[in-house]
């Protein structure tokens, strides 16, 4: 290949890069305009609603589906929002907490699952659910980069931050799922008789299998380094910004091993953090009607549990 041909190829490559860069930015800003009008659904709507109201409320719930489905924040305070999301762990929640306004008095109820806290393989990849804001919010960008979940191409092609979210965004743009102005972030689970019967059968099967083998508790209980770092950071953030941080573990139908709960309690107590382990909250009254499955409450169970959370909130006001 002679030098003339090589120069021609280089020019074509540069031209392609320039065109793709410009097209990417047009797509990115187009998606921004659409997504900024979406306030329903978990693709981006619930996040947009949180970012819109976070400076005005006094009580927030953060965590996974075990926060989202288990606590009605309006039972706790009229000025509240449940930012629990399916499949989210600490990296996602901690980043959103850090976006709360400085020095405004607010109460933060943060769900932590001991099993996840002691999982050495947890990498904080749930933070990628915030990637649509990567090139729009400096703190979110900083947190994603810190956990090394940044995509090098994303710094050049910004529209990549909307990967896997476009369909959900468009669906909720064209047909919103609910009236977000009356939505508190809480998604109750209504269980019908058929579902309850299925759960009963699962419990009977599990009981038989458990009786035939020993429960294997996790042997090494070392707090995941990402959990350790975020717990320290959130503790400092809340102290400096007039926030009350309450950490809790949501109820489960039957906890096979409590070692991780005990160890997490010790760690958080040493850090002078308020921690409530509600794993066995329904142990003395384990009515099947209170459950959807072993880790998620039905709307009936959530109503009772929310009343308990209210009593803790009132005590800390």
TrEMBL record:
<keyword id="KW-1133">Transmembrane helix</keyword>
<keyword id="KW-0472">Membrane</keyword>
<protein>
    <recommendedName>
        <fullName>SGNH/GDSL hydrolase family protein</fullName>
    </recommendedName>
</protein>
<keyword id="KW-0812">Transmembrane</keyword>
<feature type="transmembrane region" description="Helical">
    <location>
        <begin position="12"/>
        <end position="31"/>
    </location>
</feature>
<dbReference type="InterPro" id="IPR036514">
    <property type="entry name" value="SGNH_hydro_sf"/>
</dbReference>
């Amino acid at each position: 290949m002679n030098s003339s041909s090589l120069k021609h190829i280089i020019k074509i490559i540069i031209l392609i890069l320039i065109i793709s860069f410009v097209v990417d930015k047009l797509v990115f800003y187009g998606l921004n305009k659409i997504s900024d009008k979406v306030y329903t659904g978990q693709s981006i709507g619930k996040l947009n609603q949180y970012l819109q109201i976070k400076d005005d409320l006094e009580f927030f719930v953060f965590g996974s589906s075990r926060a989202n489905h288990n606590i009605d924040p309006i039972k706790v305070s009229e000025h509240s929002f449940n930012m629990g999301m399916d499949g989210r762990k600490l990296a996602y929640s901690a980043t959103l907490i850090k976006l709360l306004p400085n020095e405004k008095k607010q109460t933060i109820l943060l769900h932590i699952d001991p099993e996840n806290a002691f999982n050495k393989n947890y990498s904080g990849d749930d933070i990628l659910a915030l990637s649509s804001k990567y090139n729009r919010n400096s703190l979110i960008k900083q947190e994603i980069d810190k956990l090394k979940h940044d995509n090098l191409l994303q710094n050049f092609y910004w529209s990549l931050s909307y990967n896997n979210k476009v369909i959900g965004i468009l669906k909720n743009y064209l047909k919103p799922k609910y009236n977000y102005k009356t939505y508190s972030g809480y998604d109750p689970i209504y269980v019908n008789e058929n579902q309850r019967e299925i759960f009963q059968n699962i419990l009977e099967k599990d009981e038989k299998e458990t009786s035939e083998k020993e429960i294997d508790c996790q042997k090494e209980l070392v707090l995941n380094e990402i959990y350790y770092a975020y717990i320290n950071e959130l503790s400092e953030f809340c102290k400096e910004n007039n926030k009350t941080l309450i950490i809790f573990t949501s109820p489960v139908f039957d906890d096979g091993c409590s070692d991780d709960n005990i160890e997490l309690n010790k760690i958080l107590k040493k850090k002078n953090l308020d921690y409530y382990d509600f794993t066995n909250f329904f142990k003395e009254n384990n009515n099947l009607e209170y459950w959807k499955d072993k880790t998620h409450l039905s709307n009936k169970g959530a109503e009772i549990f929310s009343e308990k959370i209210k009593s803790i909130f009132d005590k800390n006001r």
